Structures are given as C-alpha cells and as structure tokens.
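Quick check before the chapter quiz. The format below is the same one you will see on the exam, so make sure you can read both the input and the output lines.
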Amino acid sequence: MKSIGILGGTFDPPHLGHLIIAEEVRMALKLDEVWFIPSQEPPHKEKAYIGAPHRVEMVNRAIDSNPSFKLNTIEVSRSGKSFTFDTMKLLTNENPDVKFYFIIGADMVEYLPKWNHINDLVDMVKFVGVKRQGYKLNSKFPIIEVDIPLIEISSTNIKERLNNNMTIKYMVPEAVENYIKGKQLYEKR
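Here is the expected output.
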C-alpha cells in the first residue's frame, strides 16, 4: 500500500516553511510522496489574495526540485469553498490502495472539532500535526506528531514584506521569487 501525505493550503505564496514541513513529515513517516493541494477558497479564510492559476504555478515551481513532491489541483478545479472532507472523499475513492496522511500545523489542530464531517474524516485519513510556536498539539482526535525545525515564515509576512518593498530572498524558493517579481504579484494595490 502506498503512503501519501497531503499538504493543503492557499499557498499564497508557497514558502520554505511549507517545503520543510512536507519533507520532514515525508522522512519521519517514510511516505512515498507528499501531494500539495492548493485550495480554491479555504473555508476558514477570506478569498486568497492571488488567483488560483498563479498560486498553482508558484507551487509547481516550489516543488519542482523534489521528485517526491507532487501538485494536485483537485480543489482549484472546483468552485466554492474547499472542504477537506469533500477532497479526501474523492481522493480515497479514486485511490483505494493509498493510505493518506493529512498534514496540519498546530494552529489548525485546535479547530479540528469545527471541521466539516470531522468524525468521518478521521476514519478516512491519519492526521499529522506539526509543531508551531505558540500552539500545542492537544486534541481529542488522534494526531501523529512530527517534530520539525521551527522556522517562523508565513505567507502573510511575505506579502507584508513585498508590500513594503522588502526582500523575500531565502524565504521562498528562487523560482517562486522570480515568478512573483516577473508577474508583479503582491505589490501595493
């Protein structure tokens, strides 16, 4: 049976923190692959700052150098809010020979009780919680904990830096930085 990690998010933009999380979980759990799934419209946030085509392209560029990382556009292919339950139901039906591990940051663990169809979701996937500064991995739901190097990079911080004409070098892969600059994304609106 194949083991695949799922890392979902807006990836607005994708950064080195996302890549570190994916690689650390992949190695710790001996996963065959990690699938990056950009969301169309996340249920817990406002709309993404940048449209899905740009975010998909940035993820593609960010993961290009790692053969164990794959891009899956299942959520951007459908309109409306992207609920994890709907996505995982489709993926598990399409891939009956795969064991899925859904990777979440410690900040999302506390929201699990509010997730759509959480009890059914827990039966479909194994949740993997990665530590994040200022959050604990306490949950009534089963969570596999994976320690990762604490690196405080966030998409919000990157957007703020770009908006203030500050560098994002070493915060995002060079290919992502070049794409952002080339397309003039995240500039003051």
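If your answer matched, good. The chain has a mean pLDDT of 91.
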